[in-house]
Amino acid sequence: CVLCGRTDDCPEKYGEKKTFVEYSLTVHYYCLLMSSGIWQRGEEGEGVDGFLITDIKKEVNRAAKLKCNICKKKGASIGCVVPKCKRSYHFPCGIKRECIFQFMEDFRSYCWEHKPVQTFMDKESRGASQCTICLDLVEHLPAYTILKSPCCKNAWFHRECLQYQALSAGIFFFRCTVCNNKDKFQKEMLRMGIYIPERDASWELEENAYQDLLQCYQHCDTRRCLCKKGRDYNEPDSKWEIKRCQCCGSRGTHLACSSLKSWEQNWECIECRSIFAKSGNYSRKKKRSLATSEKTDGTTCLMEEPSPKTPRQSSGSQRNFLLQSPKIMYQNNLSPCSHLELPASNRVTMSLSPLMLNRNWSLRQKHLREQRREVCNILKELKVQVNTKTTRLNINADDIWNSALKGFRQRNFSPTNTIEINFTNCKNRSKTDTSAASKHHFFHLLMLHLQNSSLFEGSSAKNLSLDLQAVEENLYFEAGKMIAVSLVHGGPSPGFFSKTLFDCLVYGPENVKPALEDVADVDVAQTVKMIKYANSLSSLQSTIHDCYEFLAAAGCLRPITALCDKNMLVNDILIHHVIKRIISPLESFRQGLKTLGVLQKMQMHPDAFSSVLCHEPGRLSAETICDLFTIHSSSDVKEVKGADFWMGYLQDVESGESVVTFEDILLFVTGSSSIPSIGFDPEPTIKFLHIRYPIGNRLLNCLELPITNTYQQFKNKMELTIRNTLRVERE
Which residues does the annotated region (Disordered) include (predicted)? Predict the structure, then answer.
């Protein structure tokens, strides 16, 4: 740059750097704006944004005679606007010395001694709060790097965060992130040296940024799509035409998949149903298309979907809902039949929402659920590699790590073999269980051990630690291998990876920026905090002096000439401690995760795998259990009533009116108290039989339920059987 002499090309700090070959001229935009002896005398398209080339050359000659009061070099084109102050400096030097440049009106510049400051009331607290842009802590101090909102009492920001937001939002969208004030907020930020470009927001300027909004949603989201040509197939004016949710438009179904007679019928997705159910607006029912079919043949087809906003106060209406559910498979061919009325004493009063949906699900949970479904499908693809040849592992549950390590390292072990588990520490006798339940229990114990082992550090979200003995014994490789095998063979997912660890595995450590929360060592974290929140150059240098040996050992020593240099120092410390220090364990762990192709799939589908590796499994709900089990039912009235009782029982469990939990039900049927990432094989089913008590067939993952006359009989038998069975197993 002809004005500051720097070669830096940093638009965020110095503005756009423009080069004009015909004039042998390169200049930073901010250097040009703030120079004291030049004005925009040309039109907008002339010269450099209105600055004439001849004027720029004159300004360069004038500045060549002035020495910078900061770097002591010639070419200082900017002077302090205070009349008695004779200080001159380059724009980059002024930034480093914390001068204020006002990008408005006369483009005034103030040196470090005369710069404007924000006023603070004596009563205002001197604590710390979150910067509402980066969500990191910011102390309530009158510092150059910290700015206070003029319109909100408790809104504080980092200067750097505000500048980045202003560059992105532009003059039309830059406003207070707390109260949305624009005029007062922009005026104060301009006074304190924030540059606000006079253009539209960056997201508005992106070409085709909203192109996706012009596309209609064309996908069938029912549990079981009946279309042989796939969920995305859409044939207008046929039963394979896709009908979108009339409320949100972001979910769809083929007409045939939801038993819709015509495109004009109302249809809502289950997410929208839950919203209406929560607000109690079932009665706000629009046109009911079922009336048409009732007029036609005088009967109500059991496959017809009733409006979700119709009050379901009778077992008959519940039965219609159950029979149209995609999770119920009819073994007999059903013809249209009349309404079936049960005795009033046998009716179960319940609504759709508590049975099928968790009322408090957020959009975040909904997104996680979709990602976990994607992971399930991916893992099923990987499981194709597993053959029928079996490898038996002798496992001591009291010494899970060493026995698992011995099993994984035995000569005949192969990740592609079917794994059988033999627990050897059951009251001096071997207990062999070749079922998926035993295998899931083994992997559950193994994941718990890994989470609390010396291989990882942190509270809940964990990173790799540095265990030199584990490096020598290649334990990080074995840990990665065990996690990969657990995912593909039907075990639980870890769920304790930090975002930083996951990003290092997927994108590579060189592309990851760790945060302070990733530091598990209390002393190191305290050192980083002292440097990060130092409010003066002297306190920063004192802190560096106190931890000189640590910084030297970490290779993070650097010259500190200004308070803003602390940010780079903090970044160096975090990268060293969280990433560079454990680079060898990380690479070994990555190699282990390559087992069965898991790491490759993680890199191809990072968002999906993040949902199972960085988040604990979601809490079981009535909707989850209902969706998990496929009900095999016929047109038998008693079996239909049994399905009603099953749904009502799930509602009682969810509301806490039962001594049994959803985990107990799952354990009773499958031998596992949680749902594996890959799902169950075979898929859990329910059968209604003429038996006295419920039976959990763990070999087939089948729950056999008795047909009873009343709901209370059904509930009593469920609780008695499940509770006693699990109690005996625990004993």
Answer: 287-318
